[in-house]
Batch of 4 targets.
Target 1
Amino acid sequence: MDINCSQAKQMISDGAQFIDVRSTNEFMQGALPGATSIPLEMINAADQMLEKDKPVILYCVSGQRSGMAKRVLQNMGFDSVHNLGSFRNFFAC
């Protein structure tokens, strides 16, 4: 986790792209408000779905998949990518 709950909520309010990298089934069972589903196995296509010049906030269950997705996006040229870690962190503030 490299961003806390308060920072994430402010960035989302300011227009950051909020991405759930869990599986489609996990997303369908419940997602955070305003989140878009891009499962980790599809993250390589993110440059077709996301704007590179807008901040991206990622989350999953534990922070492991969102951490991997962060590295992929950074390697693709996304400048501002943040890992919220677990979806539970969203409720920590």
Target 2
Amino acid sequence: MSLQFIGKKIGMSQIFDEKGNLIVCTLIEAPNNVVTQLKNKDTDGYKSVQLAAFDKKKPVSNALKGHFAKAKVDPKKKIKESRVEKIEEFTVGQEIAPSYFKKGDEVDVTAVSKGKGFQGLMKLYGFRGMPASHGCSRSHRLGGSTGMRSTPGRCFPGGKRASRMGGDKVTVQNLQVAIVDDSKNLLVIKGSVPGSNNGYVYIQKAKKINK
């Protein structure tokens, strides 16, 4: 697994490439991520690197105060652990800049999708719904029959039902990095990224590289 970089979604915009083509993109605030802990097989049973980002101004719990003090790092809002094979490449207190990614790199972006609230079957799963006329009344957006007959006499669990939509952990794969700017703590990624504006995102180098 590759390093998961912590960022915050600013919003969407558009840029033009060298040929004048318009590209829709997402702006991501990407401050330097600080290494706060290194885990190894001897002490923890696995290898991983823990990153932290975005300064925390509100009161911090004593446990986290001690954790950050041990790493000699100011308290941070977000902590993310990534399993990596070569932890020797990192040191506690090291800062990782957005230039960890290069222009043209393919990345996977993970975030919590926008919550849509309680939704019916047509919006949630794309059900066709019932007839618009021909005797159908007050049932136009219902799902129709979901059971069988007197045997088994019930609906099996696990079927599609009206329920809450969104608010799930979602990963969009193979997005391309368009701009990297360390001075402005900015990453610009082509296409859309999950989640709402000001939501935290986790960026890692793509697992499935397009050839």
Target 3
Amino acid sequence: MMKKYILVSVLTLFTAQSFAATQTATATQIRPKDCAVNPDIERNARPSTPHNMPLPQFGQGIIGWATGPEGAQHKLDSVNKTDIQNYKSQGVSLAMIHEWQTFYENETKRNSCNPTAPIRAQLMQKIASLWN
């Protein structure tokens, strides 16, 4: 019984270390080496979401931007009028889209270490252009 416990503990430890190393390597590959947060630019308050839902539910669930720059780019490339109707039916307003666009434009200027912000800003701009 003790051998089984030790084996499970060791395997869990190696799995966690491997995952952490992978996450660190991935983050290093995405972020430029010379990135920085500009202390002179304040972070904007988080914009509103329909019914004050959590950001993951709004971004990944409704807007569909997934995670990371790849997910945001995929949605930027594929967003269409059908998506706009879906957003409207789930309580998203054009004002919210503009708020999020402004938020991510500011985040792009404030934090060059965030590779997803400029793509999400472009996505919000495209959604706004398709709104009517």
Target 4
Amino acid sequence: MKSFLGLLFISLFVSCSLSDDAGPTQPTETEAEAFARNQEEIAAYLEANDLTAQTTSSGLHYIITEEGTGESPTATSTVRVNYKGYFLNNSVFDQTTTTPAEFNLSNVITGFSEGIRLMKTGGKATLFLPAKLAYGAFGNARIPSNTALIFDVELIEIVE
């Protein structure tokens, strides 16, 4: 009986010391590699859907679908928008429903802010963000790391 309990104790001790957690994981690709991959994925999406987009120097791709007639916001403007965010497989991860969202452009992801500043009040656009302009290597609970995103945005008004 003593040998059985001793063996059981040793087995439990060894199994408890074995861990699936090997500590922090290293990114599988650099930011530059992820950016290049995202640009290829976005280009393939645009081609597959017969879309032509403009591209900024930061790598944001955008299509102004309705021009709008009002002013363009600045980097510190508070805006009211309707939007739908989705992945390149068209799976929606977030969207406004009955009430527009209101936020300051200095408090949102870089690509979203940059894209909205290209719009005029009353305008609509589709924004294609490489991960470095979105959530990067970190991702969040709904968005995997190094994932390109698409946003359909309507700029309803500049609040201030």
